[in-house]
Amino acid sequence: xxxxxxxxxxxxxxxxxxxxxxxxxxxxxxxxxxxxxxxxxxxxxxxxxxxxxxxxxxxxxxxxxxxxxxxxxxxxxxxxxxxxxxxxxxxxxxxxxxxxxxxxxxxxxxxxxxxxxxxxxxxxxxxxxxxxxxxxxxxxxxxxxxxxxxxxxxxxxx
Length: 158
What we know:
By secondary structure, the protein is of the alpha+beta class. It has one domain: Immunoglobulin-like (Sandwich), CATH 2.60.40. Helices cover 19% and strands 34% of the residues. The chain contains two helices and nine strands. The longest helix is centred in the middle third of the chain and has 16 residues. The model has no long low-confidence stretch (mean pLDDT 89).
C-alpha cells in the first residue's frame, strides 16, 4: 500500500507575499545610473566604484543613501495592477508627471508615470515598449522626493 503525504501550501508573508509584474526586472547591482524628471525638477545620478555622483558632482552621504534606497525600490517595484488600454490620455501618460530612466550595461529602461488612480493609492505608469498600463504604489513618489530633498533641501512655498 502506497501512502502519499500531502503538505499544506506554505502561506507566504512579508516580502515573499509580493505579487505582480516587476516594473524593472533587473538586479540592483545592474543599475549604473538613474535619470529622473518630475515636473520641472530633474536629476541625473551615476554610480561608480567611488559611489554616487548626482548632476556631475559627488553625492552627499544622505543623497547617496537616498539613491541607494531608490535603486532598491525601483528594482523591487511591482505593479499593483496591470491592464491594456490604447487610450494613454485617460491615465495622464501622454503628458507624464514623471519620467524615470534606469541606465544599465544593456541600455536604458524607461518608465513614464501619469495620474493618480481614483483612490489616490497608485499612479498609472507605462514602460516604454510595453503596451500595458501599470499601477504603481505611491511609495515611488516618496522615494523620488527624498532624493530631491537630500540634494536641494526643503522647497520654499512659491
